[in-house]
Design goal:
By secondary structure, this protein is of the alpha+beta class. It is 27% helix and 20% strand. Helix 2 packs across helix 4.
Length: 127
């Protein structure tokens, strides 16, 4: 739990997450976990992360989500529908720890500047 609240993932000593938006519904059953998170875990999360601006917004009739706004103008939205408060805390911590870059899918599993003409080396011996 200590690492979740106080872990250090930053780029060159600067936290990349600027703002965390917590969106929830005060009536819907899918927001039950995030409402419990706001009562129990959110105050300690704010204290542990003074560099982070945390905003809560009420969206009636909508499923809950966490939105992270980063310094490089990117944003990530994570649905926290029907999650427990501990799972919501884990999602918020992952948003805080990520750098906000877009996910790039690799074309191959083997990445190199000089690809082999003979193929990728494997431990399987083929006779």
């Amino acid at each position: 739990m200590f690492y979740l609240l106080y872990g250090s993932m930053s780029q060159r000593g600067v936290w990349q997450l600027q703002k965390l938006v917590v969106s929830y519904c005060n009536w819907g059953g899918s927001s039950r976990g995030i409402r419990a998170f706001m009562e129990s875990e959110l105050p300690s999360f704010k204290e542990a992360n003074p560099q982070l601006e945390v905003v809560t917004e009420l969206n009636r009739g909508q499923h809950p989500y966490l939105k992270g706004l980063y310094k490089n103008k990117n944003e990530r939205v994570v649905s926290v529908m029907n999650m427990t408060p501990e799972d919501v805390l884990l999602c918020a911590t992952r948003l805080r720890n990520s750098l906000g870059r877009k996910v790039v899918k690799l074309k191959t599993r083997h990445v190199t500047k000089h690809p082999s003409v003979q193929g990728t080396w494997t431990t399987d011996m083929k006779i």
